[in-house]
Amino acid sequence: MSTESLLDGWKPTAPGDVTPREESKMEGSPVRIEGVRAAAAPGTASVRNKVELKDVSFYYGDFKALDDITLDVPENQVTALIGPSGCGKSTVLRLINRMHEEIGHTRVEGQVLLDGRDIHDRDVDVVELRSRVGEIFQKPNPFPKSIYDNIAYGPRLMGVRKKDELDDIVERSLVQAALWKEVKNKLGNSAMDLSGGQQQRLCIARTLAVQPEVILMDEPCSALDPVATQQIEDTIEVLKEDYTIIIVTHNMQQAARISQFTGFMLVQETGEPGRLVEYGATSKIFTMPDREETENYITGRFG
Amino acid sequence: MDSRQQQAAAGAGTGGSVPRGRGPSAPKGHRRQYRSQKIAHAVLALFALVSVGPVVAIIAYLFYKGGSAMSWEFLTAMPSKGMKAGGIFPAIVGTFWLILGTVIFAVPVGTLAAIYLTEYARQGRLTRIIRLAIANMAGVPSIVYGLFGLGLFVLLMGLGTSILSGSLTLGILVLPVVITAAEEALTAVPQSFRQASLALGATRWQTIRKVVLPNSISGIITGTVLAVGRAAGETAAIMFTVAAFFLPALPDSPFSQAMALPYHLYTVSTQVPGMPEEMKWGTALVLLLLVLSFTLSAALVRLRFRRKKRW
Amino acid sequence: MTRQSYHEGLEQLNEEVLRMGSLVVEAVDFATQAFLKGDRALANSVIAGDDDINELSLWIEGKCLALQAQQQPVAIDLRLLHTALLVSLHLERIGDLAVNIAKIAKRMDRSEVAEPYMEILRKMSAQALEVLRQGIKAYADRDAGLADSLAEIDQPIDDMFKDILSRLLSHEKGESGEAPSTEWATHIALASRYIERMADQVVDMGGRVSFLVTGQLDGKYFDRAAPDINKRFGE
Lengths: 303, 311, 235
Prior knowledge:
The complex is a heterotrimer.
Chain A: H1 2-6, H2 20-24, H3 40-43, E1 49-60, E2 63-74, E3 78-82, H4 89-96, E4 106-114, E5 117-118, H5 126-132, E6 133-136, H6 147-157, H7 163-176, H8 180-183, H9 196-208, E7 214-218, H10 226-239, E8 244-248, H11 252-258, E9 261-267, E10 274-281, H12 282-287, H13 292-298
Parallel strand pairs in A: 3-8, 3-9, 6-7, 7-8
Antiparallel strand pairs in A: 1-2, 1-4, 4-5, 9-10
Helix pairs in contact in A: 6-7, 6-9, 7-9, 9-10
Chain B: H1 3-13, H2 27-66, H3 72-76, E1 79-80, E2 85-86, H4 89-120, H5 125-139, H6 142-156, H7 163-187, H8 191-199, H9 204-212, H10 217-233, H11 236-239, H12 261-270, H13 277-308
Antiparallel strand pairs in B: 1-2
Helix pairs in contact in B: 2-13, 4-7, 4-10, 4-12, 5-7, 6-7, 7-10, 8-9, 10-13, 12-13
Chain C: H1 4-37, H2 40-71, H3 75-107, H4 115-141, H5 144-172, H6 182-214, H7 225-233
Helix pairs in contact in C: 1-2, 1-3, 1-4, 2-3, 3-6, 4-5, 4-6, 5-6
């Protein structure tokens, strides 16, 4: 279904989406490695773009941190942003839930659209925006409360008071985050007693509890061991069925494993703003990137 | 265990397989280093003792001199015979009301000010000026607060010499302590908690109420209790604003004058000829124990919360 | 289950290789039947069907690439991807050879059918089909022993091929009977050559299966017979 048309003929990216039998009925060469145009790729297809950045530049005070970023994030897919430290990947994330406003002295040019609506419009309620666009942080950051209260935090903010309703939300969120089995008998325990990986899945469950549409993940596994990382990746794979996920990661193998689209960002020279060098289907980026900078980075020939 | 001991132990443990004579460096140099270290330790320990000494000495001395005055009657009776007999009950009651008034005024004002400074105000010149002012307030002599309270509350606002005037004056006096402690407590709450809350769609105020305050309450309480200790012992600031030398009755409203322990101590020590020694010292002892009890409870609160806190 | 879509992808890849295998078996079966019976319609269906095989082969290649690019396969997964890619390549070649045979079936003049040749070719075809079935079975069952035995069951095919060549050459030398037309002889020679090549591809494929199971790269499966035959062919 979805990805296949996006990929402009490059079928194998979407494992399980198209069976070869169906494919062989289609006309034309079924496999073409070339032809996925960078930023245009996802936009050209019938799949809906959940988030769109249009010519976005971003300033911290006088410093230009991002230059002219145009990025279409398709719905119900995992989109990864990779690139060396300080290239502005996390800044791009923050623009999507307006967390950059918590820093002060920032300025945004261009448009950031969520379902076609510019979220930087004056009349967009940032509180409502953030309930639609959740964020998972680099370091697991559960509140020093019980597991239950952590997850009920968001729903309670939104006025859910009934015990059985909250119980349902807590269970559903934990199940979705693949943590339910491990904690169902100790929901009253402090979240701080969980392991790092469990804490991060708790944070995912906490975000799911407010039923967001988009989930931003800022290097969610960088503080975790390989097993915990694996569990988070498995969770992401399931979540993508229902949510649009944008993940920033230092680990390009991770981007390759879990994402359907990848953007490569780079600061060409110190002091310059971060730019989106290339954006396209993950299989394309990791097989035949258009840009030499991308190839150098993902093959470890960077610098 | 120092390095020589370790070497010796290792040598003994492995049947002397470690060559003892040929250490990695000259033993002489080692010995000199070791000696200077010992001296430094001793000196530092001495100074630590010196600073604790007076406190212990004062407490011991007060017990020695005033312990004999301690009795149920001393704590609960009205003074009689021109203060020379009876108890100090009205002074204790006065001090209690003053403290209560101070807390009611200083804690909300101080905490809200701290919340504004840490959570809302854009950090810049204005907050720097405010913080500088607060720091300076802490250095203003208490007698100046006393005169300020006299001018503003007693005379200008017409509150008269009263518990209310005194509480407000003491409140202003301890405000820097409360604000500083609260600010410290608020900034100690990890930024990541705020981020998590905001990212879940909480407003700033919801974040403060549900995440920041619950996790900083121990620090705020500690600051409050310390401020109370400070207020309880304050003499100069209440001299002109509330304190009476002697009152035949207990205060019955915020607008009453009141006796207070520190002022009582001051007057009986300087203004009452032929005052029995043990009563003076006894008053001092009660005041000190009161202040110490506040400090101690602050320490206990802090300890209890620190044990619970894990981030 | 962890890394679900990755493992599903591998499974799907494996299934598609097997599906390609059955398509190729069918193609070889029909092509040789068309040739032996002179059935042009059947030959045409084989030629048309090759598109499916080719597309499947491309799909498998793309899938292997994507899985390697994105999933960092190691150990059995890596060997499977490597093997699947090469097996599909062999199968694709076998499919092409089947098309070649089908084309001969369409062109060959039936009047010149000479029974002794056809008898040998019938046996060769049956044996080649058997080798192919066993080769695919070895892949499906991850059976290194069966893969090793492929060279053995391939041997009669090589022998029959040599037999056909020497028979054709004996006409040339006037050693036996009336010489067939050069065109007919060429068709027979090529058909037998294609059948022989198909079986050789399967033997090589067996080497890949053996690698999948044992992890050992081994040259023993490589086409030892070929130089020998070429030499004879050039005589």
